[in-house]
TrEMBL record, chain A:
InterPro entries assigned: Arsenical_pump_ArsB, Cit_transptr-like_dom, Diverse_Ion_Transporter
Protein name per the record: Na+/H+ antiporter NhaD
GO molecular function, one term: arsenite transmembrane transporter activity
Family: Belongs to the CitM (TC 2.A.11) transporter family.
Biological classification of the source: Bacteria, Bacillati, Bacillota, Bacilli, Bacillales
Amino acid sequence: MEQQAIWAIIIFLAAYALIITEKIHRTIIAMLGGLIVVAAGVVNQETVLHHIDFNTLGLLIGMMIIVSITADTGLFKFIAIWASKKAQGKPVRIMIVLSLITAVGSAFLDNVTTILLMVPVTFSITRQLRVNPIPFLITQIISSNVGGTATLIGDPPNIMIGSAVKELTFGAFITNLTPIIIIIMAVYVLLFILLFRKQIQTTPERTQNIMELELTGIITDKKLLVQSLSILGLTILAFFLHQMLHLESAVVALSGAFILLLLTGEHRMEDAFSKVEWTTIFFFIGLFALVSGLVETGVIADLAAKAIELTDGDPVATSMLILWLSAIASAFLDNIPFVATMIPMIQEMGNMGVQNLEPLWWSLALGACLGGNGTLIGASANLIAAGMSGKEGYPIKFLAYFKVAFPLMILSIVLSSVYVYLRYLI
Amino acid sequence: MESKNGEDIEFHLQVLDHAEEILPKLKAVRAFFESDDVYTDVLFYIYPNHRYSAIVRPEFYAEFVLQLMKHRLLKRVEWIG
C-alpha cells in the first residue's frame, strides 16, 4: 500500500475515533481532519474541492431557511394542538398522532428540524395533561428517523445518496422507500400503544382542558404563513419534477429559500441565516474532504473489492451485508460519516462489475436511516431531542432508550430485509 | 386565580373588560417566555371567551409575577402566610 494511502487511513481513523468519543465537537474534528488530508499532501486542494458535494450542502441550507421561516408562523403548534383536539385529548391517541405528524414532517422537511419544532409543543401538551413526556419524546425520535427514511430530503444519509446517484430521483426515493416505511410505521404504532399506554394516564378533567383549547391566536403571522406554505409546497412539487426540469435538488431548495426571502423581505434574512445549522454544514465539508483522501488513494476501491470477495458478488448477500452493517454501525456511530464512506464503496462495486446497484443503494438508505434509531447516539435527531428533554428536567437515559428502541430498530431491519429481498432480489 | 398543579403553579386568567388594552400585554408576557430557551418555564394555554391559563414552574414564579407587574397586569402583589 502506498504511503499516501496509509496516511489517508490514519487520518480518517483518528478523526473517526475522536468523533465517537464526543470529547471535541465533531465539526472541529472533521474540518481539521479534512485540512490535514490537504496539508499532508494526501490530496491536493483542487481535488478535495471536487469531492465536496455542493448538492448536499445546498439542499440542506435551502431547506433549513424555508423551514426556519415557516416555523416562525406558529404552524407546527397549531397542527399539534388541532390534532390533539381531534384525538379527543386522550394521551395515547395524542402520542400516536404526534408520532405520525413527526414522521410526515420528517419526510418532507428533515427529521432534525421536525424534532426541534415538535419537542416544545409536546412539553406544552403533556404539561397540560400532567403525563410523563418521555414516552411521547421517544416515540417522536423513532418516528422522525422512520419518516425521514421515506424521502430524498428526509434524512442526511438519503440526501447524500440522492446527491451522489443521479438516477435516484426524489420520486424514486418515494416509490422505493415509502411502501416499507408505511409498513414499519404501522407496526410501530401498535407497539407504541402496547409499550406506553399504561405510563400515560390522565384524568377526564385534564382531557377536557385539551378539548377546550382555542386554536385562534396560535398562528402568529397569517401573511407569512401563506407565503411560506406556498413556497414550501412549490419546492416539494419541484422536487418531484427536478429530473424532468433538469435541475439538481440543491437548485430547487435554494431557489425556494431565496424566493421566500424575496417575498418576506430582507429583514428576515439575518434571522433565517442564523438558524441554518452551520456546524452540520461544515461537518459535511470536513467529511467529504476526509473521504476524498480514501477515494483518491484507492483505499475505498480495495474495501469494495474485499466486500465483493466476501459475498462472492452475490446480490442477495451483498445487499444484506450492506443493510445490516449499515444498521448496526449507524446505531452506534454517526450515520453521516458512515454513509460518506459507503457511497464511494458502492460506486466502486459498480466499476468492478456488480450489475444491479439499486438494491444496494436502498439497503444503504434503509440501514443507515433506520439504524439511527438503535441508540440515543445513533442519529442527530435523537441527540437533539435528548438534549432538549434533559434541559427541561426529563433526561432520557441511554439504557432506557436502548431497551425500547434497539429491538424496534432490529424489527425494522428484519422487515426491510424481507422487503428488499422480495422487491429487488427475486 | 392561582392554584397548585402538582409541583407547578397554575394561573387562570380571564379578560372581562378592556380586552383591546389587556390582550396585547398578555401576548407580550407570553412572547417573553416563549422567546427564551427554556420551554417549560411558563406554558400558556388559550381558551374561548378570553380565558387563559399559565402553568408556571416554581423557580419561574417570581419572574412570571414580575412580568405581569411590568406590563401592569397586576396592581398589587402580596405574600400570604
